Amino acid sequence: MSIEVQNISKNYGAQKALDNISFSIKKGEIVGFLGPNGAGKSTLMKILTTYITADEGEAKVNGHDVSNDTKNVQKSVGYLPEHNPLYLDLYIREYLAFNADIYKVSKSRIEEVIQLTGLTPESSKKIGQLSKGYRQRVGLACALLHDPEVLILDEPTTGLDPNQLVEIRELIKNIGKNKTVFLSTHIMQEVEAICERVIIINNGKLVTDKNLNTLVKEQAEQTIEVEFDQLLSSTDFATLENLTNTNKINDFTWELTFESDEDKRGKVFDFAQEKGFKILQLSLKNKNLEQIFREKTAKK
């Protein structure tokens, strides 16, 4: 396993930031790490990157214990923290050369990561002259300098414009073909675009750990949007089995919600035929990750 977390807990005074968290990530997986603000995401990432220590439990990165084998963990991990720390007065190559000395890697690696992260057009500039998107690229280039097996990225696309978002997502996805990526974000579309698996924590507890496709398909509730050729009322749908809610969108269009993992579009079509209604439009509206996230992290 590239990352192993067993019964990790962390307290800040009376506040329990992490409460008995356990999971493992195989080599080559791209995993989205989600949770509301204050859920404990950054705390766990700092534990995995040896910036802070856990109060209880064990964690390993590439087989190295984060508590007593910190140097080997640091060699195994490329880390981009939420607030990307950069020396703005340095030129890009200067900054990467400084970090290459720390990692004791060849200077030739600098040109490799500049090309890999798409920094070539801006590579003669000082970091302070760069846009937020290119500063994030510098952070990624630094994280990749020592060719780590694991990338841990904390909110890597915060503050980027839509074009920069697409560029950074594609970059992370391409890098993830050869490395394990553990990615924290608040942007659900980012997880849907990049990740194969999602881990959700709430109030320091793990609430979901599943393959993304499986998680979406597992939702027993489904909503069908249907447009009829004539006016109906909610009582007209009384004969439909497993129907739990009706929502009138306009005079002719309804949202019908069913408690079932079976595709109900055929049943709605049969219902319309039996009643003599014509269907002008019919579509299945599966729950997306954002809806699932809200349900899993709702205050109770």
UniProtKB/TrEMBL annotation:
Keyword Thylakoid: no
Keyword Transport among UniProt keywords: yes
Source superkingdom: Bacteria
Domain ABC transporter: 3-228
Pfam families: ABC_tran (PF00005)
CDD domains: ABC_DR_subfamily_A
SUPFAM superfamilies, alphabetized: P-loop containing nucleoside triphosphate hydrolases (SSF52540)
Record's keyword terms, sorted: ATP-binding, Nodulation, Nucleotide-binding, Transport
Gene3D superfamilies given in the database record: P-loop containing nucleotide triphosphate hydrolases
GO-annotated molecular function: ATP binding; ATP hydrolysis activity
Family of this protein: Belongs to the ABC transporter superfamily.
Protein name: Gliding motility-associated ABC transporter ATP-binding subunit GldA
Species the sequence originates in: Flavobacterium tibetense
